[in-house]
Design goal:
The protein is α/β, with parallel strands linked by helices and 362 residues long. Strands 1, 2, 3, 4, 5, 6, 9, 10 and 11 form a 9-stranded mixed beta sheet that branches. It is globular, with a radius of gyration of 21 Å.
Length: 362
């Protein structure tokens, strides 16, 4: 089943969605799994982020019909263009408080204060977390949103890193959990952050760590909060193939403009050897001749060769998450029974379970 966006559809998804709406002729909206995406990303990444989640959810949904609604929070700094996009395609949280939602995804944003409690959106974000505990069956929290959630719920502080955690990292599975069903022994996820929460503090507060690595630290961890399973990612499984490259290129440009003091490091585990050689050669020239005009010679051809090597990992986790939502909505222990079913019947069982207990018109 295709992912369907409820309300005005952003242009980068509208053409694809329109071509497949006929597939939903036999499915009413009341049968769809209902998700809310609260997109807090800065203006420069706002549209890319929504498209990344559209594509990931669409890929992971299989036979599960998914209806997604976009929401925005006040307090996140916006320029006129970003605010115009939100006004055109997003709903306010007042609409969310009155909605029936199976699951929710909350993205991070760029912090402006060392203490997250000082951010202008802090009060509203914590209200959102409290609402999610009572009104969703599961909530995914990405990067800064994950840090904000554990700070609000358990007083767990994030710790600054000596260097930016930037690249694609392999994380062994650390716990036997339904979200890890059919997962490879090593999962790959992109990371881009300057802070971390630590395993010992999470475990002491009752969190279960599902994936972690020596290089990236804790990656994925969960905790049941009231009726909702809170799923926290320090990384970004939703990232597109070029996301880290665009961020690296942006930081190179900032260096050449003297907007940052040091030249950025290459993302770990991302570029191949040939691309790394080209980029390091450009770096050597940039250190000798620091001016913005040098960006005209940036080797953009290295981006064309990039592949989304974490696609299988991201799809596996999100597929399991959607099936967890189906089970929770059906109010029956279907998660375990679906896990035991053959792969080709898991999706059809999940899709049938969706319409069984969710009331029409909610």
């Amino acid at each position: 089943m295709p992912l369907i966006v409820k309300g005005p559809v952003p242009p980068r998804w509208k053409e694809r969605e329109a071509s497949r709406l006929a597939l939903l002729d036999s499915v009413t909206q009341s049968e769809c799994l209902r998700l809310a995406l609260i997109n807090n990303m800065p203006d420069s990444a706002l549209e890319d982020t929504e498209l990344q989640f559209f594509e990931l959810l669409d890929d992971a949904s299989g036979d599960i019909p998914v209806l997604l609604k976009l929401y925005s929070m006040t307090g996140v700094p916006r320029a006129a263009l970003g605010q115009r996009h939100l006004n055109s395609f997003y709903f306010g949280l007042g609409d969310l408080w009155l909605s029936r939602t199976d699951g929710m995804i909350v993205t991070g944003t760029e912090p402006h204060h060392p203490n997250l409690r000082d951010e202008p959106y802090w009060a509203l974000m914590t209200q959102l977390f409290d609402w999610a505990e009572r009104n969703t069956n599961s909530t995914i929290l990405s990067c800064l949103a994950a840090h904000a959630s554990v700070l609000h719920g358990d007083g767990i502080q994030r710790h600054p890193l000596a260097q930016k955690r930037f690249g694609v990292y392999e994380s062994p599975v650390a716990s036997d959990h339904g979200l890890m069903r059919n997962a490879a022994s090593l999962l790959r996820f992109p990371h881009s952050r300057w802070n971390e929460v630590r395993e010992n503090e999470l475990i002491a507060a009752g969190y279960v760590v599902l994936t972690k690595s020596v290089e990236a630290g804790v990656d994925l961890f969960v905790k049941k909060k009231q009726k909702s399973l809170f799923v926290h990612f320090q990384g970004h499984p939703e990232y597109g193939a070029y996301t880290l490259a665009k961020e690296y290129r942006r930081d190179v440009k900032r260096f050449l403009r003297a907007e940052r003091p040091s030249y950025p490091s290459l993302p770990d585990g991302y570029f191949d050897e040939a691309a790394s050689q080209l980029l390091n050669s450009f770096r050597a020239n940039a250190l000798l001749d620091r001016r913005e005009e040098l960006m005209n010679a940036f080797p953009d051809e290295v981006i064309d060769r990039l592949q989304k090597t974490w696609q299988a990992s991201a799809k596996c986790i999100y597929s399991n998450w959607l099936e967890y939502l189906v089970s929770a909505r059906a109010e029956q222990p279907a998660f375990n029974s679906i896990a035991a079913a053959p792969a080709h019947t898991q999706r059809s069982q999940a899709a049938k379970a969706i319409g069984a207990t969710f009331p029409s018109g909610s």
